[in-house]
């Protein structure tokens, strides 16, 4: 089977996770468009932004995992979704140092890590978006049926289904990712068979946009709109803070994910219809796609902040840990036992994502 990648002295695409698979002759203009400015931009922009997202996101999501996996003994359905979301975000964030190094020095980690890192990135980006949708569905049912929601077999099945779908979306990375050498450095990219590579790329991009953005967005909008209507109709509900939180969740998702998916859709349409004919527009599109993708990654940093304001129990755990840590520091004692959460009442134990 013949494989092909566009490698010439005049052109190759910038180093990034999603768009290094230029095995497709999008247009003659693509082939003669020199993209040195795009590569220079990525070499300075990606390491800086990835470092910030990595440090902030790992700290916040590690705290979420520690609280839900260790400190919080009674777990609800929402707790399980939040825990899985934090794990997905952590695994996604752990790939960023590799991509930062790839932008500056090229890929120096070998073919196996190239495939694994790209697959982990794709799988956990997808899982993160889908678990956000699961949380919104769970919050809707918690609003119309305000009682404890214990973990059931269906909860575990849904989590397993989300991870399975995410894994299926990353299979093309495991198959087609490889390391090749050109323009003085090794790069980690996808190389597709010439005869059907374009169809594979268009199909995978379309599935990713549908399952990672369109479907979660629809679910989030429908569920949180329904919750907002219920709150507005309830005469005794405290409406101001919950409505602000709902708006923050929706706005954060749209602001971080919409620009990337618009650019990805535009790039996919360009593959099909050759819409872009000007070299300057092609380069600006590449830069915009890279910036919007890094912005989409920033949602991994926002999730722990949203949990803090949305979860009464989660917030209480953090406050108690801080209080107990202060006591330990003043007393100078080495405490190894589990932190007691005495100030949490039974109601809070059963609703860690309270609206």
Automatic annotation (TrEMBL):
Q: Name one GO molecular function term.
A: C-C chemokine receptor activity
Entry membrane topology: Multi-pass membrane protein
Q: Name one GO cellular component term.
A: external side of plasma membrane
Where is it mainly found? membrane
Q: Please name one Pfam family that this protein belongs to.
A: 7tm_1
Identify the residues that the record assigns to the G-protein coupled receptors family 1 profile domain, covering every copy.
Answer: 60-307
Task: Name its cellular compartments.
Answer: Cell membrane
The record ties this protein, via PROSITE patterns, to:
G_PROTEIN_RECEP_F1_2 (PS50262)
> Which GO biological-process labels does this protein carry?
calcium-mediated signaling; cell chemotaxis; immune response; positive regulation of cytosolic calcium ion concentration
Transmembrane segment boundaries: 49-71, 80-100, 106-137, 158-176, 209-231, 243-262, 295-314
Q: Which domain of life does the protein's organism represent? A: Eukaryota
The UniProt keywords, alphabetically, are: Cell membrane, G-protein coupled receptor, Glycoprotein, Membrane, Receptor, Transducer, Transmembrane, Transmembrane helix
Q: What is this protein called?
A: Atypical chemokine receptor 4
Q: Which organism is it from?
A: Python bivittatus (Burmese python)
């Amino acid at each position: 089977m013949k494989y092909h990648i566009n490698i010439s002295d005049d052109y190759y695409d910038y180093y990034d996770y999603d768009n290094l698979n230029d095995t497709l002759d999008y247009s003659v203009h693509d082939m003669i468009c020199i993209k040195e400015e795009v590569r220079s931009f990525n070499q300075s922009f990606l390491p800086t932004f990835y470092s910030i997202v990595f440090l902030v996101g790992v700290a916040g999501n590690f705290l979420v995992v520690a609280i839900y996996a260790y400190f919080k003994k009674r777990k609800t359905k929402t707790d399980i979704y939040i825990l899985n979301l934090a794990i997905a975000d952590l695994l996604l964030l752990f790939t960023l140092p590799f991509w930062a190094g790839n932008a500056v020095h090229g890929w120096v980690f070998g073919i196996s890590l190239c495939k694994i890192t790209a697959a982990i990135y794709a799988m956990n980006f997808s899982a993160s978006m889908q678990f956000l949708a699961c949380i919104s569905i769970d919050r809707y049912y918690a609003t119309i049926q305000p009682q404890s929601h214990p973990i059931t077999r269906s909860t575990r099945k849904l989590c397993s289904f989300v991870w399975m779908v995410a894994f299926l979306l990353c299979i093309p990375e495991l198959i087609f990712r490889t390391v090749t050498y050109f323009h003085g450095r090794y790069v980690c990219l996808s190389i597709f068979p010439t005869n059907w590579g374009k169809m594979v790329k268009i199909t995978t991009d379309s599935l990713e946009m549908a399952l990672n953005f369109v479907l979660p967005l629809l679910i989030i909008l429908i569920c949180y709109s329904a919750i907002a209507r219920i709150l507005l109709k309830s005469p005794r509900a405290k409406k101001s803070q919950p409505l602000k939180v709902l708006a923050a969740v929706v706005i954060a998702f749209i602001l971080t994910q919409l620009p990337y998916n618009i650019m990805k859709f535009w790039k996919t349409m360009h593959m099909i219809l050759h819409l872009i004919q000007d070299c300057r527009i092609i380069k600006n599109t590449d830069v915009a796609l890279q910036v919007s993708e890094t912005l989409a990654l920033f949602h991994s940093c926002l999730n722990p902040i949203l949990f803090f304001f949305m979860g009464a129990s989660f917030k209480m755990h953090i406050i108690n840990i801080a209080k107990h840590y202060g006591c330990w520091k003043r007393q100078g004692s080495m405490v190894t036992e589990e932190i007691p959460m005495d100030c949490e009442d039974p109601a809070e134990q059963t609703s860690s994502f309270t609206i």
